[in-house]
Design goal:
Blueprint (H helix, E strand, L loop, with lengths): L2 H33 E5 L14 E5 L2 H4 L7 E7 L2 E10 L3 E5 L2 E4 L2 E2 L6 H9 L8 E5 L4 E5 L9 H4 L2 E2 L3 E10 L5 E2 L2
Antiparallel strand pairs: 1-2, 2-11, 3-4, 3-11, 4-9, 5-6, 5-8, 6-7, 9-10, 11-12
Length: 185
């Protein structure tokens, strides 16, 4: 094989690697921007469902097709440089309130099995898990979110309803630490 042929093959192989790398970077950008993104839980507002410093995958594409539903765990832009993770408890048209440590949507008590551990801890301390609030009427293009750790959560009770335009996506699964990999629903 001549030097010219070997040089040509090396150039072709380099070009193929550069194209593959470029395509990988473009695909990663598209996936991260429009489909899925990593998120790190910051704080204890979603205890015992999610824990501080857990890493999870957020599905950004799901809400291009539908709006958030009650029970979804979402990430949203709460402040200019900070995203929050909370659970959707009410959607547009709902009236939400808490009375006697029970969440009511449109006047009906909501079953919240994900709060069992938090309820037990609040009962041991002889305090309500959810202080009375509301009623709040949720407007068009809005949702009402609460942290599962109601005693330690900065949520719609303080910041008001969240506009759908601020929603990043739905939390799908925890991927770190590996020992706690699980679906978030």
């Amino acid at each position: 094989m001549s030097e010219e042929v070997a040089s040509s093959r090396a150039k072709n192989e380099t070009w193929e690697w550069l194209k593959a790398l470029g395509i990988a970077i473009i695909l990663a950008f598209i996936i991260r921007t429009f489909l899925f993104a990593p998120f790190i839980v910051d704080g204890e507002s979603m205890e015992h469902t999610l824990h501080n410093n857990e890493k999870l995958v957020v599905n950004k594409a799901i809400y291009y097709l539908s709006e958030p539903k009650r029970g979804d765990i979402i990430v949203f832009h709460a402040e200019e440089k900070r995203d929050y993770i909370k659970r959707v408890v009410a959607v547009a048209g709902d009236t939400v309130e808490a009375k006697d440590d029970q969440l009511l949507i449109n006047g009906k008590v909501v079953d919240e099995p994900y709060l069992a551990q938090n309820r037990k801890e609040a009962a041991e301390r002889k305090i309500p898990l959810t202080e009375d609030f509301g009623p709040f009427q949720i407007g068009e293009g809005q949702i009402f979110v609460l942290g599962d750790n109601r005693l330690n959560s900065h949520d719609s009770r303080a910041i008001g309803p969240v506009g759908l335009d601020r929603v990043v996506g739905r939390a799908e699964f925890v991927f770190w630490p590996f020992s706690d990999i699980r679906v978030t629903r």
